[in-house]
Known about the structure:
The chain is mainly α. It has 3 helices and no strands. The chain has one domain. It is elongated.
Amino acid sequence: xxxxxxxxxxxxxxxxxxxxxxxxxxxxxxxxxxxxxxxxxxxxxxxxxxxxxxxxxxxxxxxx
Length: 64
């Protein structure tokens, strides 16, 4: 699953849990990529990937 797909899924889940079913469908389908919920989820996913890469590099350095 790509980062944008993960962000759409996360945003859709959140929106649906708040009762915004139409917005959740739009987010899931890609029509809501300009929604703040999608952009925030994407930013968090990007940060998570940066942290994961740094941890991997640090662990590889310690193994040497």
